[in-house]
# Entry
Amino acid sequence: QKNIELSIKRNSERDSLTDLYNRKAAMNLISEYLRDPENSSKRGAFISIDLDCFKNINDKYGHMVGDELLNKVSISFRTVFDGSDIVARMGGDEFIVFMKNAGKRVDILAKALEASRSISKLSIEDKKDICITTSMGIALSPIHGSSFEELYRNSDKALYHAKRTGKDRCVFYDEGMG
# Structure
């Protein structure tokens, strides 16, 4: 009975394709972390990530290839990011990572670029022309927000700035982004 309950809970928190946290679980876990007074002064990094041109891959090769690629991306994230970081698939080709003890901007950027490089090296058998790049937007807690909603909104603004300025890049949120 206990194992069944644990299995149901796990399935309700996980994305069925990638086994990463789903949107609801990520929102709950990050919100819970941010509400804890012990964490209020710790720097966190909220990273919004989109796969560039993923729709084109799905259109050209079909959803099975797209799904295989999403699975490989999720494995890359699990390899690059720390086990204490919260990694989630928000839907489609959109992912988020919340780094709990993020450290300096240069360290955050190094981790984001490591993930980007790892993803750019992915390949699908018999599909030699697939080249996947990522656009990332980063918001820092508590500087750019102290709630899931604020951090998500601000990292998303940075993400779209990255996409508008050429894709395949990582951008920190800046208040000038709106």
Q: What stands out?
A: The mean pLDDT is 92. The first helix runs from residue 2 to 13.
